[in-house]
C-alpha cells in the first residue's frame, strides 16, 4: 500500500505544474460565473493552515536539529534570501519607480491619480512577496531537479519564522502609524492571531502527529497519506485564491469601476461629472497586470543567479547549490496571502489576491525552466567543490 501511495505521489509531483494551472483556470471560471468572494475567503482561511500542516509533516523535528548543524548551508540560505534578494528587489523597484514617475503626471486630477493605485499595489505588495522565501512547493521542484531537498525541507521552519518576524516588525509600524489607523484596518491582534493559525498551530500539530506515528500504525498510515497529498492541497488552494480574486474583480467591473480607485466624495457630488471614463479603470488594472508580469518575470530571470553567486561565496556542493537557487527563486506567496490581507485596506484585498495570483503564475512558468536550467548550469560550473562539501 505504501508503494502505491508513493507511485501516485511521484505522478502528482511530476505533473504538479499542470495541476496548478488547471486549478487556477478552474478558480477563474468559478469567479467569473459566481460571486463567491466571501465564501472563498472563509475556505482560504481554513485551507492555508492545512497546506502548511501537510508541508510540516515532511519536516521531522530531528532533521531540523541535525540540519541546523550544517551551518554553511543554513547561512547561505539566510544570506541569499534575506540580504541579497532584498537588494535585488530594491534595484528592481528603483527601475520600476523611475519608469513609473516618468509616465505619471502630478497635474492629473485626483481621480486620474487614483487610477495609478494598481501599479503601486503591484509594486508594494510584490515587494513583500519577493522578499519572502517559499516554504511549500519549493521542496517538490527542488526534488525534481535532484537538489538537496532534505536539507531544504529541514530549514523551512527557520525561513518561515524569520520572514514572519520581519513581517511583524514591518506591520507594527504600519498599524501604529496614526495616519493609517482607519476603520478599514484590523487591529494588530488579528495579525498575531493569523500567525498562530497559519504557522504555530499547523507546526505543532504536525510534530505531535509525527511523534504519535512512531507508536501507532493508523496514525502513521494517515500521516503518510497526508504528506503525499501536498500537491493536491496546493492546487486546491490556488483554485480558491483564483476564485476569490476574480470573483471580486469581475463584480467590480460589473459596477463600471472598482474600489481601488477610492473615488472621493467630491467626485460623487459631480466635480468630475462628464469627465470620468469608466473604462479607464479597467484599462489601468490591465496595464497594472502587465506591469506586474514584467516585474515578477524580471525577478524570475535574475534570482537564480543570486543563488549561484551565494553558493559560490559559501562554497556549497552541487545539490546544495541547486536547493539554494530554488529557495531564492521561489517565493512564499500562498502562505503570505492571509497576512497581506490583514495589513491591507478592505478595498484593496481583491487586488492583493490578484497580485499573489499573478506572481504565482509567473513563478510556475519559471519553475518549468528552473527544473532543467538550474541543474544544467550548476553541473557545468560546479566541479571542484563537490568533494569538499560531501565530508
UniProtKB/TrEMBL annotation:
MF GO annotations: antimonite transmembrane transporter activity; antiporter activity; arsenite transmembrane transporter activity
Membrane spanning stretches: 20-37, 43-61, 73-99, 119-139, 151-176, 188-209, 230-253, 288-310, 322-344, 350-373
Entry GO CC: plasma membrane
Domain of life: Bacteria
InterPro entries the record matches: Arsenical-R_Acr3, Na+/solute_symporter_sf
Keyword terms of this UniProt record: Membrane, Transmembrane, Transmembrane helix, Transport
Entry protein name: Arsenite efflux pump ArsB, ACR3 family
Amino acid at each position: 500500500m505504501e508503494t502505491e501511495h508513493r507511485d501516485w505521489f511521484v505522478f502528482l509531483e511530476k505533473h504538479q505544474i499542470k495541476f496548478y494551472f488547471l486549478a487556477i483556470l478552474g478558480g477563474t471560471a468559478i469567479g467569473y460565473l459566481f460571486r463567491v468572494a466571501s465564501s472563498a475567503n472563509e475556505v482560504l482561511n481554513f485551507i492555508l493552515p492545512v497546506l502548511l500542516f501537510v508541508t510540516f509533516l515532511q519536516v521531522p523535528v530531528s532533521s531540523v536539529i541535525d540540519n541546523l548543524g550544517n551551518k554553511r548551508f543554513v547561512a547561505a540560505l539566510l544570506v541569499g534570501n534575506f540580504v541579497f534578494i532584498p537588494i535585488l528587489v530594491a534595484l528592481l523597484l528603483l527601475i520600476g519607480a523611475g519608469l513609473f514617475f516618468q509616465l505619471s503626471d502630478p497635474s492629473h486630477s485626483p481621480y486620474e491619480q487614483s487610477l495609478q493605485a494598481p501599479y503601486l499595489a503591484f509594486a508594494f505588495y510584490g515587494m513583500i512577496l519577493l522578499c519572502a522565501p517559499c516554504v511549500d512547493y519549493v521542496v517538490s521542484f527542488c526534488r525534481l531537479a535532484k537538489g538537496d531537498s532534505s536539507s531544504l525541507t529541514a530549514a523551512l521552519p527557520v525561513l518561515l519564522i524569520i520572514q514572519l518576524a520581519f513581517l511583524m516588525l514591518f506591520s507594527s509600524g504600519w498599524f501604529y502609524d496614526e495616519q493609517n489607523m482607519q476603520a478599514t484596518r484590523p487591529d494588530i491582534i488579528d495579525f498575531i492571531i493569523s500567525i498562530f493559525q497559519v504557522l504555530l498551530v499547523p507546526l505543532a500539530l504536525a510534530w505531535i502527529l509525527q511523534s504519535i506515528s512512531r507508536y501507532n500504525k493508523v496514525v502513521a498510515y494517515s500521516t503518510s497519506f497526508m504528506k503525499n497529498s501536498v500537491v493536491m492541497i496546493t492546487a486546491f488552494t490556488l483554485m480558491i485564491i483564483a476564485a476569490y480574486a476574480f470573483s471580486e474583480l469581475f463584480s467590480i467591473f460589473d459596477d463600471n469601476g472598482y474600489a481601488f480607485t477610492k473615488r472621493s466624495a467630491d467626485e460623487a457630488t459631480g466635480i468630475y461629472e462628464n469627465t470620468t471614463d469608466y473604462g479607464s479603470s479597467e484599462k489601468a488594472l490591465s496595464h497594472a497586470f502587465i506591469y506586474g508580469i514584467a516585474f515578477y518575470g524580471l525577478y524570475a530571470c535574475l534570482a537564480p543567479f543570486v543563488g549561484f553567486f551565494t553558493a559560490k561565496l559559501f562554497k556549497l556542493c552541487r545539490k546544495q547549490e541547486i536547493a539554494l537557487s530554488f529557495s531564492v527563486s521561489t517565493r512564499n506567496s500562498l502562505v503570505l496571502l492571509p497576512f497581506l490581507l490583514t495589513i491591507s485596506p478592505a478595498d484593496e484585498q481583491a487586488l492583493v489576491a490578484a497580485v499573489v495570483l499573478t506572481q504565482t503564475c509567473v513563478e510556475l512558468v519559471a519553475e518549468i525552466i528552473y527544473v532543467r536550467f538550474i541543474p544544467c548550469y550548476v553541473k557545468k560550473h560546479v566541479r571542484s567543490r563537490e568533494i569538499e562539501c560531501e565530508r
